[in-house]
Write a structure and sequence with these properties.
The complex is a heterodimer of chains A (224) and B (162). Chain A has 10 helices and no strands. Chain A has helices at 2-19, 23-60, 63-70, 72-78, 87-100, 104-120, 130-141, 148-156, 166-193, 200-205. In chain A, helix 1 (2-19) runs antiparallel to helix 2. The longest helix of chain A is centred in the first third of the chain and has 38 residues, at 23-60. Chain B is an all-alpha fold and 162 residues long. Chain B has helices at residues 4-11, 16-50, 53-67, 75-80, 85-99, 104-115, 119-130, 138-161. In chain B, helix 5 (85-99) packs antiparallel against helix 6 (104-115) and helix 6 runs antiparallel to helix 8. The chains are: A mainly alpha (224), B mainly alpha (162). At the A-B interface, helix 1, helix 2, helix 6, helix 7 and helix 8 of A face helix 1, helix 2, helix 5, helix 6 and helix 7 of B.
């Protein structure tokens, strides 16, 4: 799907630029976009380096294990195919808490780390596992308690009530997150039902088992 | 959090500085690894906007939105939000500047910007970092929740401030 969207945006953009006589803008936009991509990536370096360092300290101190044990049930419900006590769970939880607190900067490295841990459980390194999809669903919907950036902007433009959008934002974000969890579950089920047959080697190491949805307890034997 | 974690670790006899440097090393490689993914996506978005295709798309939906009592000005924000975080933040700021932070448009823009995330960016960064090419249904789920969030933000604002 991402192939189609990517190609579609470029081709449609090209056609529109040609018809509207905006080929100059088109060429400019290509290089602007490329430059932005690099700029954003470089902007992430400092944040990633710092937070991954802090998270490593937390990990070595056993903090992630402590949090994971406390919030285990929630994660077990959302991520049934991640084995109990797996390091991914700690990172998933840190990612969720950072998102909740609006620490977008801290959430990204932890999310990436969670992805890397989930990847160790993945039998097919180029295809996302259901757990990875769930992690993304939670992150794209991103529950936010305090939209700090927006409050700052509103204050900047002389709002009489800069924080007046906290309630509406919270309500909208909760609705979006519930929708994400629901859709994720629905697609996961549909996907399990019509998964094409796999070569036996891949099936042996696969976390979720065969085509039918296995009982929740049947996951403990799965280890990457 | 920044003070608590190292202190806690120190109390548990962890060599905090070595630990920090050890983890921090990974950050650089991760950020560099993301570059190709981000460049690819940013180019496509940028081209789509600059060509006028986005404006054309807007032309179709505007009359419908007016009928529903939704200010059409917020639509590009809904389309931009999943694609670009900085782009949509810029657009939201522009709407707030033009219409005022306490106008209906300003409030809807604030709520949309605050309540959903940049799905394509999150997808690109997270999957890019581990080399996933086939994201399965993740994009559909992300875009669906963006749509729900967008509609919810407008509906809730119309109810609360309309």
């Amino acid at each position: 799907m991402i192939n189609g969207i990517w190609l579609g945006m470029i081709v449609i953009g090209f056609v529109f630029a040609a018809v509207n006589g905006r080929m100059d803008a088109f060429t400019g936009a290509v290089f602007d976009g490329a430059k932005n991509g690099v700029t954003v990536s470089f902007g992430l370096i400092s944040v990633l380096v710092f937070w991954l360092g802090i998270m490593k300290v937390a990990e070595d101190a056993g903090l992630l294990r402590t949090i994971a044990r406390a919030l285990g049930p929630v994660v077990r419900f959302l991520f049934p195919d991640v084995p109990k006590g797996h390091p991914a769970i700690g990172y998933i939880l840190s990612n969720m808490s950072a998102n909740l607190l609006g620490l977008g900067n801290a959430a990204t490295p932890m999310g990436i780390k969670a992805m890397q841990e989930l990847q160790t459980l993945n039998p097919d390194k180029e295809t996302a596992t259901p757990a990875m999809c769930t992690l993304l669903a939670l992150n794209t919907a991103s529950i936010t308690l305090i939209p700090a950036t927006l409050i700052a902007i509103r204050l900047n433009y002389g709002s009489a009530d800069p924080a007046g959008i906290v309630g509406t934002t919270l309500a909208a974000t909760v609705v979006a997150t519930l929708a994400a969890i629901f859709a994720d579950r629905l697609f996961r089920r549909l996907h399990l039902l019509r998964r094409p047959p796999e070569p036996p080697a891949a099936r042996l190491s696969r976390t979720g088992g065969g085509a039918a949805s296995p009982p929740p307890g049947a996951h403990s034997e799965a280890k990457g | 959090m920044i003070a608590f974690i190292p202190l806690y670790a120190y109390a548990r006899k962890v060599p905090v500085y070595e630990s920090f440097v050890d983890g921090a090393k990974e950050g650089f490689g991760t950020a560099i690894g993301i570059i190709p993914h981000l460049v690819g996506m940013m180019v496509a978005i940028s081209v789509f906007r600059a060509s006028g295709a986005l404006d054309y798309l807007m032309g179709f939906v505007t009359p419908m939105l007016r009928g529903l009592g939704v200010p059409p000005e917020v639509l590009p924000l809904g389309l931009l939000r999943p694609l670009t975080g900085t782009g949509s933040l810029a657009y939201a700021t522009e709407l707030i500047r033009l219409h005022g932070p306490d106008s209906l448009i300003g409030r809807i823009a604030s709520t949309i910007q605050g309540s959903t995330d940049t799905t394509l960016y999150v997808l690109t960064v997270y999957f890019g970092a581990v080399g996933i090419r086939n994201g399965r249904y993740a994009l559909k789920v992300g875009l669906f929740s963006d749509l729900v969030g967008f509609v919810a933000a407008i509906a809730i604002c119309l109810l609360a401030f309309g």
